[in-house]
Specification:
Length: about 500
């Protein structure tokens, strides 16, 4: 949070200098006015004089003399001129013909360190969830009859560890996430991999942290205890109360999974106390009572963190969320966001991670050149050791950029980074939310448009509305409890 008065401008303006509004998004919180700058992602709190200047320019460009005259009687000339200079310095105002600022087309260095590796230890699952992006109607990889083995071998897993240690460069810490299919179907390799990775990381004077995603059906007391003893973070894929969960998350014989996972989840939460257990919810048209789902998972089941995501699918599927339902979903997200804010104002935890994650990005001034870290700081590894952009593309030849044995094909990686850069997404150039969105998820784009480099235009309005809500929350905290934001400094 940087006030505009924190710096002064040495840039002088002539009396006939014509000024106009530039690229920013304004928002308010507790009576204070803020600017979210694009593309820098800086946030500035406006004082009365700054706000008056911006209001005066709303109707069109004005000369410096005209602005001073307009504000006479409200602010003295020196203050108006000083504030104009400050607004010009942060590029909130400028010449009406000044070129629009766009993200530079610079690519990350070839040795950009790998932060997170997602190991798909199996591409087999014991469930038949209707909407599954990996096995359902929108799958992009033939996991049933494809060439990849069903389970990752211990040797491939060890090669993956070596790959992570090497590709993480000089970073002292790295992260490994285990994924599937259903991850726990290959629990023996998971156990051996954690032990091997810990030993090798210590030898390299590094640390590796671990997490996994599971549908919870295979959890047993000994597995739960091992997860707790080894400090493995756990995210459970679950969609809500019994009617919701059993509607689409089913076994291959069509039987619902809620009654099976309920006692296992409760034991997991009771036993694994070193890290908060999170729930990952897929929202569909069939079940969009966001508030009911969130309350059930937190209040009744005891999850500390819950993240909700709309289903990734083509629009004509009967479980695809309609435009009208997206509006309803957004309103419920906003209600939970207000709840999150009230907790934060009291220095209390709230488990709605959709807010937490966005607030952290806003606080850190994130201005993305890419929708996420896929293909750069994050890579996915298929069961045969092929390295893909992320876990959702694991096994897809089109999105494979190397192997754990041979390393990353830098030419393929560079081409991916060129094609997916925000500078190539012309639809995004005029959007004020582009520093945080940058076009969105590559897998979502591939499913919707057949091209992972395509901007996710079907969610543009939703993303802008949600980002605006989170900016308002950020401004409220900056006004009423700024110390809460310090937790995002790490």
């Amino acid at each position: 949070m940087t006030p505009p008065t924190a710096t002064s401008s040495s840039d002088t303006m002539n009396a006939d200098t014509v000024l106009a509004l530039r690229d920013f998004h304004a928002f308010e919180a507790f009576g204070a006015r803020f600017l979210y700058m694009v593309p820098s992602a800086g946030i500035f709190r406006m004082d009365e004089c700054g706000s008056a200047i911006l209001d005066a320019l709303e109707s069109g460009p004005l000369s410096q003399d005209d602005l001073v005259e307009t504000l006479q009687g409200l602010f003295d000339t020196d203050r108006t001129l000083e504030t104009m200079a400050e607004l010009k310095e942060i590029r909130a105002i400028g010449g009406p013909d000044a070129p629009k600022e766009e993200a530079p087309k610079d690519l990350p260095p070839a040795d950009f360190p790998l932060n997170t590796m997602v190991l798909n230890v199996t591409n087999k699952c014991n469930l038949a969830c209707t909407y599954c992006y990996e096995y359902g109607e929108d799958k992009i990889i033939d996991t049933q009859y494809g060439k990849q083995p069903k389970f990752m071998s211990e040797d491939t897993a060890e090669e993956s560890v070596e790959f992570l240690l090497k590709q993480s460069g000089d970073q002292p810490r790295a992260h490994m996430t285990f994924f599937g299919g259903e991850t726990l179907l290959n629990f023996p390799v998971l156990q051996k991999t954690v032990a091997y990775a810990r030993r090798r990381a210590a030898e390299e004077r590094k640390t590796i942290s671990f997490s996994l995603t599971t549908n919870a059906t295979l959890l047993k007391p000994e597995i739960i205890q091992w997860l707790a003893d080894n400090d493995v973070g756990v995210t459970v894929s679950i969609d809500g109360p019994k009617p919701v969960q059993d509607g689409l998350r089913v076994f291959h014989n069509g039987r619902g999974t809620y009654d099976v996972v309920l006692p296992k989840i409760k034991e997991l939460i009771a036993t694994h106390r070193s890290r908060p257990i999170g729930a990952r919810v897929t929202l569909t048209q069939k079940h969009l009572n966001v508030l009911e789902i969130y309350r059930h998972l937190t209040d009744e089941l005891g999850f500390k963190e819950v993240g909700l995501a709309p289903v990734t699918t083509k629009d004509h599927r009967d479980y695809a969320i309609t435009p009208e339902s997206k509006d309803s979903m957004l309103e419920q997200f906003k209600e939970l966001a207000e709840e999150w804010l009230q907790h934060a104002l009291r220095d209390e935890h709230h488990g709605f991670t959709n807010v937490t994650d966005t607030i952290e990005e806003i606080h850190k001034g994130v201005s993305k050149a890419y929708g996420c870290g896929a293909g750069l700081g994050l890579l996915g590894v298929a069961t045969d050791g092929d390295v893909s952009l992320c876990h959702r593309f694991a096994g897809s030849p089109e999105h494979t950029i190397g192997t754990v044995a041979d390393g990353v094909d830098r030419e393929k990686q560079e081409q991916f980074l060129v094609d997916h850069h925000i500078a190539e997404k012309t639809d995004c150039h005029k959007c004020w939310a582009r520093p945080i969105c940058s076009g969105g998820c590559y897998h979502e784009a591939h499913v919707q448009y057949g091209d992972s480099s395509h901007a996710n235009l079907h969610y543009c309005t939703w993303v802008r509305s949600w980002t605006h809500t989170c900016l308002e929350i950020y401004g409220a905290l900056a006004e009423r409890n700024p110390r809460f934001l310090e937790r995002f400094d790490a």
